[in-house]
Structures are given as C-alpha cells and as structure tokens.
Design goal:
Blueprint lengths: L1 H4 L17 H8 L17 H24 L1 H18 L8 H15 L8 H15 L7 H21 L4 H6 L2 H7 L2 H7 L1 H15 L2 H4 L1 H28 L5 H13 L1
Helix pairs in contact: 3-4, 4-5, 5-7, 6-7, 9-14, 10-13, 11-13
C-alpha cells in the first residue's frame, strides 16, 4: 500500500490511477473497508478491494462452519445466498457482499473434493456450468451476479473433479513446472501485476503509444508479450523481499526445486 500511496505522476500526491490521495482513502485501506466506499473501491491498488472482502468474509467463516456442521450444506448454501444477495441489493451493490455466497460455493467444492459424494456427477456438472456461463454471457444485459455464480460453481466442480481424478490430463496441464513455479509467488503476482499494466494503459490512453493507441490488437500484443513478463519479474522481486522471508523452510525448498526445473 505504501508503494501505491507514493506512486505519483504529478507534483501532488496521487495513486497510480491518478486519484488524489486523502487520509480517508488511506484509513479505509488500513481498516480494510474500502469496498464499502464506491469512490475508493479501486484506489491505491486495483486488487486491494478483494482483500478487504476476503478479510470480512473470514470474520464470518466460523459461523459458516458451524452452520455447515449442524445444518448441512444445503441450509448453509441457502442462508449464504439469501444473506449475501439481500445485503448486496439492500445496499445498492454495496461492499461486493454477493461474494459471501461465492465463498460458500467454494466450501461446497472443498467438501466434494475430499469425499465420494456426487463423484460421478462432478464431470457433467463442470461441463454444464461452463456451457451455461458461456451461453449466458452472450445475452445482452446479462447480470454479472449470475455470471459470477456460474463461474464459482464451475471452479468448485472442476476443483473437486481434478482432486478426485489425480491422473486426469487437466492436472498435468495445471501442474506443469512453469505454472507451478509461478504459483509459488502467485499472491505477489496478484498484488503487483496491475502496476506495470496501469503505467502502460495510461501511456496508451494519453496518445503517446503510437501504433498501440490506434489498435486494440497491437495494445493486446504489447500487454501479453512485453508487460506480462515485466509484471512477472516485478512480482517475483516483490515476493523475494516481502513474502519469501516469512515462508517455512519446507516451502522454500519446494520453491527452489520448481525454479530449478523451469
């Protein structure tokens, strides 16, 4: 957050998106409540709002576990759906509260992954929800709330399916050494990737990008083949300084083995 706060294009303090810094912005991020303030949702660093949502859900997680244990999965899913979307619409899309239900869907995926319940239906369920999502987003004015639910269900079913089918080719693809190595610092990548992307984006929008400002295709090529490697390199450096010193020795050894094979 400090890096984002002191990143400036002009003489006055602003974040990397050009939003003027304020004490309320900094305090809301420190307290992890910026997701409830629309004007501060993507300030300082675009991904930060999701961390606020995640931390707020973790506060409720013990209640979800108790409800799951004593009420069962279907009651928890029903309560999660009603509460999440009730708060979401009552506050006019406030706080991204609908993510609470997506979190409960993730709990369902975790349970299915390590049980034999519905094992034979996981493959068809994954395919069905993926197809439903692809069809749904083609509709004009399709709701992002429903799209998010379909994505969450697809991810949960796929995770459970691949966990129960260790020899599936999907595990080999996702477990490829380069992807596994990037996975060792994926959280740093998540936090840092938007900085180089926004720098280039603002450069292009300022009409200083030449051929990149005139063509979406050229801009996409620039982002994929130039900006993405820079983002990965910067994220790995961030990981070495701020994340790796706090990892366990076992995790560090696994990271070194993966890095040596890339």
């Amino acid at each position: 957050m400090l890096v984002a706060a002191f990143y400036s294009y002009k003489s006055h303090p602003q974040d990397y998106l050009g939003n003027p810094l304020s004490w309320s912005m900094i305090v809301s991020h420190l307290l992890l409540v910026q997701n409830w303030i629309p004007s501060q949702l993507t300030t300082l660093d675009r991904p930060f709002w999701t961390i606020a949502v995640e931390c707020q859900i973790y506060v409720l997680f013990p209640l979800l576990v108790l409800l799951w244990r004593y009420g069962g999965r279907w009651l928890t899913l029903a309560v999660g759906f009603v509460v999440a979307h009730g708060v979401f619409y009552a506050t006019h899309y406030g706080g991204n509260a609908n993510f609470l239900f997506l979190f409960v869907v993730g709990m369902l995926g975790a349970e299915l992954a390590f049980s034999h319940q519905l094992r034979r239906w996981l493959g068809p369920a994954t395919l069905l929800t993926v197809v439903a999502y692809l069809v749904f987003i083609q509709r004009p004015g399709s709701s992002f709330v429903i799209a998010d639910i379909l994505v969450a269900l697809s991810a949960a079913f796929l995770m459970a399916y691949l966990t129960q089918h260790r020899d599936h080719w999907g595990n080999k693809v996702l477990g490829a050494k380069p992807l596994a190595w990037i996975g060792t610092f994926s959280y740093s990548l998540y936090l840092v990737h938007s900085f180089p992307e926004v720098i280039v984006e603002r450069w292009i929008l300022a009409s200083k990008g030449g051929i990149f400002a005139d063509s979406n295709r050229n801009a996409a090529i620039l982002m994929i083949f130039v900006v993405s490697p820079i983002a990965i390199a910067a994220s790995y450096g961030f990981h070495l300084v701020f994340e790796r010193p706090f990892l366990t020795q076992k995790r560090k050894e696994a990271e070194q083995r993966l890095a040596a094979r890339v």
